[in-house]
């Protein structure tokens, strides 16, 4: 629903900021036609401005261009590659320590959001950026906030905006329900499974299609059994069998042993990301 562009903050540049480059997010052409589109963009800004975590993209301001009357958000420029780009280089999945680092970063970001009554609503590999600064979760355009957390914040009319990513959306989201912590748990579990196995747990089918075919993912080979025992219920197509919190899955990764090759794997991850940056020659991408 948004498009992101690299820009230079001229005021920062004037005052000698060594890195004045920023990212600007605005609505794409389709969504900008909705009369409440700018209110929804402000809602994303309101959400991000309350999330202060090293694994979540940092937002700076919400502005409206006087000439075009078009709203936009300014935020930190993420230099790197998205997780889906990295996975293309590893069709068999990532080594345990590499995948563990990314999985734990994602779960930590979600734990922070959920503690503040915020559900992301669109967890997928394309919404995780990896770079020299580490790992960042971004694109909260489909997020849902509890009324208690931000009273009166405009909500996304999900029957009007068909913006979900079906292969990572929990069945209840496909039925029109609002995102919840356990629907984020399901999406995160799909991403984590893909990190280790190199393939989507349900063959990139939607949850409803997976239900119809009675698909059941097998344990990824490099994953320790205690972690799989936490991941398996998170992949359940029945929301009643999923944990209501990201906590158990995060705890399983925090307790999991690190292999003796951690430093080598981390260096390999950073080398791969740097190579992708050089090859692609870009820092930001259009968001779906």
UniProtKB/TrEMBL annotation:
Domain spans labelled Protein kinase: 1-254
Taxonomic superkingdom: Bacteria
EC number: 2.7.11.1
Enzyme class: transferase
GO MF terms, alphabetically ordered: ATP binding; protein serine/threonine kinase activity
SMART domains to which the protein is assigned, alphabetical: S_TKc
Protein name, UniProt field: non-specific serine/threonine protein kinase
Keywords: ATP-binding, Kinase, Nucleotide-binding, Transferase
The organism of origin for this protein: Pseudomonas flexibilis
Pfam families: Pkinase (PF00069)
Classification of source organism: Bacteria, Pseudomonadati, Pseudomonadota, Gammaproteobacteria, Pseudomonadales
């Amino acid at each position: 629903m948004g498009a992101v562009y690299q820009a230079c903050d001229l005021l920062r540049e004037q005052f000698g900021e060594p890195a004045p480059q920023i990212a600007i997010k605005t609505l794409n052409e389709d969504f900008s036609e909705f009369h409440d589109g700018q209110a929804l963009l402000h809602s994303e800004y309101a959400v991000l401005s309350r999330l202060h975590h090293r694994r979540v993209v940092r937002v700076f301001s919400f502005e409206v261009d006087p000439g075009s009357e078009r709203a936009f958000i300014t935020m930190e420029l993420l230099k790197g590659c998205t997780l889906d780009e990295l996975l293309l280089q590893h069709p068999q999945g990532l080594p345990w320590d590499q995948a563990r680092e990314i999985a734990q970063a994602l779960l930590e970001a979600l734990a922070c959001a959920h503690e503040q009554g915020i559900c992301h609503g669109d967890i997928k590999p394309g919404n995780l950026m990896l770079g020299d600064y580490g790992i960042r979760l971004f694109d909260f355009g489909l997020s849902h906030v509890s009324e208690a957390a931000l009273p009166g914040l405009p909500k996304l009319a999900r029957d009007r905006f068909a913006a979900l990513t079906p292969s990572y959306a929990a069945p209840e989201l496909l039925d029109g329900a609002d995102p919840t912590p356990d629907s984020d748990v399901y999406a995160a579990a799909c991403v984590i499974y893909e990190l280790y196995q190199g393939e989507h747990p349900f063959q990139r089918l939607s949850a409803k299609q997976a239900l119809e075919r009675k698909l059941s993912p097998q344990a990824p080979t490099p994953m320790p059994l205690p972690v799989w025992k936490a991941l398996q219920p998170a992949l359940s197509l029945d929301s009643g069998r999923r944990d209501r919190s990201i906590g158990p899955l995060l705890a399983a990764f925090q307790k999991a042993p690190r292999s003796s090759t951690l430093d080598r794997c981390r260096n390999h991850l950073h080398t791969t990301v740097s190579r992708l940056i050089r090859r692609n020659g870009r820092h930001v991408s259009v968001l779906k």
